[in-house]
Amino acid sequence: MSKNCLVCGGSFQESRIKGLVQCKDCGFLTTNLELTEEEIKQLYSANYYHGEEYADYLSDKEIIQHNFRKRIKRIGKFVPDRNRLHLFEIGCAYGFFLEAAKAFFCDTEGIDISEDAVKYARETLGQNAHDGDFAAFYSGKKYDIVCMWDTIEHLEKPEVYVEKACGLLNTGGYICITTGDAGSLNARMRGRKWRQIHPPTHLHYFSRKTLSLLLQKKGFEVVDISYPANTISVNTILYTLLCIKSSHEKMYRFFKRLGITKMNININFHDFMFVIAKKK
Ligand SMILES: [Zn+2]
Fold first, then answer.
1. Gap from CA of 144 to ligand 1 centroid (Å)
2. How far, in Å, from the CA of 213 to the mean position of ligand 1?
3. For an engineered disulfide with 88, which of 46, 104, 143, 229 has Cβ 3.0 to 4.6 Å away?
């Protein structure tokens, strides 16, 4: 517990969730872990997207892009002249968002730490994707909108990324972030069992308050916070429950044979926030 709070500089105390600490001043909830570069690379190897954390990310492409298009629609409500904007995505993975966003923005570009994912984005989907760490990225270009979908909770130093994103944006540009809301009713009720709590891939647990504070500190003004529903495949739900969180592979295969894993459902626990903020 040596580091200070990355949101407000305050000091940490034990939180009510075992293994996590909480800032005494702003309430920011975090693992406060320090990972080596090698550990991070290991975490996001190809297995991450094929069995360890996702049932099979690639087979869910259509559904993932459906969710992305809903976010693009929301951005359109707050960001004028979307089709003239240069977009950059931090954590672009396999390039599903970049591909879906191409029709709505002037141009799209992204970066991800996972080499396999970026290779797919570039070679199979033809997207402008870089592999590497955004903290070390330099293109010499300026952008109008930076997106970080379900990424900020994975970053060891999210404050560095938000600051760098601000530097890459033109004045009046936007940052769009999705992450779980640790202050939501569901998160507070579930405690350690909240589905978003899984260190070491999720290192930080922001709330409306702490994410807004960080954005303000780094030169942004929050313009919208919403709680979108996400469409998810029954396959992903059953695989997570029966194969990742427990060992009931037989039961999973049974449901798969029945065909119900082909269905999709809409879920909204109002604990997943979508924040749009404008560079001041
Ligand atoms: Zn704090």
1. 29
2. 9
3. 143
* Distance between Cα 196 and ligand 1 center (Å): 20
Distance 7 CA to ligand 1 centre (A): 5
pLDDT at position 49 is 67
- What is the number of domains present in the chain? 1
Mean pLDDT over 173-198 rounds to 95
Amino acid at 89: E
CATH number at residue 145: 3.40.50.150
- Would you state the pLDDT for residue 32? 86
Does residue 55 lie in a domain region?
A: yes
Q: How do residues 96-137 score in pLDDT, each as one tens digit?
A: 999 999 999 999 999 999 899 999 999 999 999 999 999 999
In a domain, 151, yes or no: yes
Please give the distance, rounded to the nearest whole angstrom, from the Cα atom of residue 45 to the centre of ligand 1.
32
Residue 24 in any domain: the answer is no
Under the banding of pLDDT at 50, 70 and 90, the label for residue 61 is: very high
How far, in Å, from the CA of 226 to the mean position of ligand 1? 23
Expressed in angstroms and rounded, the spacing between residue 187 Cα and the centre of ligand 1 is: 19
Q: Give the rounded percent of residues in the chain with a pLDDT score beyond 70.
A: 95
Tell me the backbone φ, ψ of residue 150, rounded to 5 degrees: 50, 40
Q: Tell me if the bond preceding 200 is cis, omega within 30° of 0.
A: yes
Domain extent, residue 273, equals 37-231+269-279
Instruction: Please indicate, yes or no, if residue 255 is contained in any of the structural domains.
Output: no
